[in-house]
């Protein structure tokens, strides 16, 4: 397989999506701070969107559906980032820390 | 589009397109690794921005310049800036070190991630994906038409979700300010 023609292969993009997903999982598992976990979650969403766009380009009959779905993923990711970061700020006000090990109680 | 099995000449148009694609792949993976491994959170956000720019380039290669532009506008322009604001508001000068949670978290996390992405990659490699005939060209005009006809309900619901998310973020971040 020619390395300069990789952009014409479906599996290139799918494997890239899988790699982004794996890096995001690694980040979520190993990160200590809540913001670091949010950043890793964004990576996972990027991997999922890349999969949708790859199937949209190479396999799907209607090349609009995947793009629309990616737009919806972006909107949901924006909402998730806004809510998650405001929760992080509220947690920081309460505990004076964003370390995931310090926030051991969820009530109050 | 039939994949050719030979490399085009490096300094032809196809060769340069391939080089740009490899650069985008490298940008994406480097940004993702920086985002998950840097010690300081600000550098992590910078890596996230790199990764998103690379993914936007990949969307460009997937025949969707509109989604590539939206990626840069929404992710780089809004989400990454929001995360940077949150870091400035909530992350003090870190007293404790930001490394992995324990001695086992790093290797076990790496093993989990490698297992997941490796098995997904093997699955991708072994599957013969069926290719269907395109029924339209996927242009911005077609996206707009389908967004307001077939996906109308989801479109409206997404705007409702965004409105509620903004209100909820305001309520959550405001509470406790007096206390």
The average pLDDT of chain A is: 86
- Determine the N-to-C terminus distance of chain A: 59 Å
Unreliable stretches of chain B: none
Largest sheet of chain A: none
The number of helical elements of chain B comes to: 6
Description:
The complex is a heterodimer of chains A (108) and B (179). By secondary structure, chain A is an all-alpha fold. The radius of gyration of chain A is 18 Å and the shape is elongated. Chain A has a domain of 66 residues. The model of chain A has no long low-confidence stretch (mean pLDDT 86). Chain A contains three helices and no strands. Among the domains of chain B are: 82 residues, no CATH class; 43 residues. Chain B contains six helices and no strands. In chain B, 26% of the residues are buried. Chains A and B meet through α1, α2 and α3 of A and α1, α2, α3, α4 and α5 of B.
Could you write a compact summary of the structure shown?
The complex is a heterodimer of chains A (108) and B (179). Chain A is mostly helical.
List the keywords.
heterodimer, A: 108 residues, B: 179 residues, mainly alpha
Indicate the topology.
The complex is a heterodimer of chains A (108) and B (179).
Chain A (H helix, E strand, L loop, with lengths): L9 H21 L3 H25 L6 H31 L13
Helix pairs in contact in A: 1-2, 2-3
Chain B lengths: L12 H25 L3 H21 L3 H26 L14 H22 L13 H9 L3 H23 L5
